[in-house]
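Long-time lurker. I teach an intro course on protein structure, and each term I like to show students one example going from raw sequence to a predicted 3D structure in token notation. This year I'd like something fresh instead of my usual example. Would anyone be willing to generate the tokens for the chain below so I can use it in lecture? Attribution to the forum is fine with me.
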Amino acid sequence: MPPSPDADASAHLSAADPVLAALIDDAGEAPFERPSDRPERGEHYAALVRAIVGQQLSTSAARAIWARLVEHFGGRPPTPSEVLCADPEELRAAAGLSRAKVGFLRSLAEHVSSGQLELDRLQELSDDQIVAELTAVHGIGPWSAQMFLMFQLERPDVLPAGDLGIRRAIERAYELTELPDAATITAIAQPWRPHRTLACRYLWLSLANQPA
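-- Reply from a regular --
Happy to contribute to a lecture. Here you go:
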């Protein structure tokens, strides 16, 4: 049986960077699974709704609010028209959303309904083009767009250099004296190309595995 794409990418990363090689060795085989509550790969609108719901929340809080939102719409993610037709205050109360996030969800629904954001053609665009398309929506910033690239579209070479978890993981793994800035992270990550997404996943995992 031929090696999996992840196995090939892990081998590349291990050969390119001895610090990352140690993290990969510590992680063991097949350490990543797709969370069961994440929208399916083709459900781009639902994935963006999920991303907005989870902004600036812990994983457990984001999952709880997402579950309430889905329950409010009969056990499935809402469509753009359903979001726009819903009473904002009722939606906020039912799911436990802030008023700002309800506004963000409405902005997303408006962009999709009007055709300003064509989700079906995102796969045809470059990473930078997708970030530009998504950040035109009020409430979706560069970080959320990068997470969408990494986890929904599964783009292989995304580097969220501003992510605090990535910064902390690199500071620890590379024994830096302070949190690295974006330029430092970009330089460190240069040998990881074209597999920077997988490298980031190992970095996040290393942070999760740190003793309390």
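Some talking points for your students: Residues 46 and 169 are 29 Å apart (CA to CA). The chain is about 60% helix and 0% strand.
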